[in-house]
Amino acid sequence: MAEGFLLERGFNAFSYQHIARELGMKPAAIHYYYPSKDDLGTAIVARQLRRLRKWRDLPRVADLPPAEQLEALLTVYDSHVRHECRVCLFGALAADFRTLPAPMQAELRTFNSELTAWLAQVLAAGRATGSLRFVGSPSAKALQVLTTLAGALQVARVHDATPYHSIVGQLRLELLA
């Protein structure tokens, strides 16, 4: 529930009262598990980090050729668009980053670093096998791809999914050999 609010509204735009109302309980019940909203926010980002690690290491992802690993990542972002044009974790928190509690900032940095490093490895392997093409360093390209995807989700939120699909289609044209 809280994760949904975070992805739909941003961290600073929901309260325990919003969550409690949706769940039909008192805010004190949430405070029992998460004494502060900072604790809740940090737990949400840590959970997303665990999910990223689990997803990345799944044989159905890890054992794929590089171009198919890239497609698997694009499918994850596509799911955000299908789910009421939610933004990704980075997109939801980046604008408010300086107002986030330090532990939450640290978790978000780790999440972003690990996702970027994984994608850079995929891109490097894809270039080595000839299944992906791009100029420049794999890490710079990974950052470009991830920021493009985050931005595409923001555009979809304002308009509809059409521009998102155009942007992702362009990424495919530029990357897939």
TrEMBL record:
Query: What region holds the HTH tetR-type domain?
Result: 1-52
Could you tell me the keywords of this UniProt record? DNA-binding, Transcription, Transcription regulation
Q: Which Gene3D superfamilies did the record assign?
A: Tetracycline Repressor, domain 2
In terms of InterPro entries, this protein maps to: Homeodomain-like_sf, HTH_TetR, Tet_transcr_reg_TetR-rel_C_sf, TetR_C
The UniProt entry, under Pfam families, shows: TetR_C_13, TetR_N
Residue ranges forming the DNA-binding region read 15-34
What GO molecular functions are on record for this protein? DNA binding
Q: Which SUPFAM superfamilies match?
A: Homeodomain-like (SSF46689), Tetracyclin repressor-like, C-terminal domain (SSF48498)
Name-wise, this protein is: HTH tetR-type domain-containing protein
Organism, as annotated: Hymenobacter sedentarius
